[in-house]
Description:
L,D-transpeptidase catalytic domain-like, about 290 residues, 7 helices, alpha/beta, two-stranded parallel ribbon, 11 strands
Amino acid sequence: MKQSFPRRNRFRFSAQTSRNLFPLVTYATEHRNGAGVAKNTRANRGDHMFNLDTFKAYSRAVAFGAVAISAIAFAGPANAAPVQLFPFFQPLPPMAAPQPLQPYQPYQAPTYQTGPSEDQDAVEMPARFRRQTVAYATREAPGTIIIDTPNTYLYYVLGNGQALRYGIGVGRDGFTWSGVQSVTRKAEWPAWTPPPEMIARQPYLPRHMAGGPGNPLGARAMYLGGTIYRIHGTNAPDTIGKRVSSGCIRLTNDDVSDLYSRVNVGTKVIVLPMSERRADLGATTR
């Protein structure tokens, strides 16, 4: 048999189970909170209902708050940036217009210009020591190198009574030599290893020095036979025309590079003795 509850008890049970939802105002709730007996007539006679006045006041407050938030959000000058209502949604950046395809261009390696020679910048070479073609009478075949030790010249025989003349530096007193040799090896930016006899005379010299602009052998070297002597460049162009070496023949880096390009391994080299002073034969032809 279904048990029925009085209307008063049914409503009290409903209010207790749903008090966490909407603010229902009932007689039982007011009595529990110490608010007293409900003032309206229907509550006094036991007909508990939703408080319409409280709901209206609550609705007005909510509506006023929404209007205030809207006014703040959209207030400001017309040119002001719009307020982002949902800042966590970022707009996508605009897509750039596609670029037209360029026709294929083959790769071209950049060109580099060779700077002026350090020798030319550092020293103004006397005219007689500059590379030049001169008249030179000899029975030697074209391509032969003749070292004129007394006059500090190197001749590269061209034939037909002409030779290419270079200014050179030669061995100091006691270190000159003479004879016939041949070029047995060529090297670009050669390393330098002083021989033991040079180390004994000058113990402060390095035991080995890698090739480079600071190396005393300069930009190129041509080795003569099985001797310790070479025809090479120099990092001291002011020594051209002087007797300062330990027997090697030195040219400026520009001149030794030019001679290096003309000489092959096996080229004959004649070194004249210091006592044989051969006069300069003929004038410059170019």
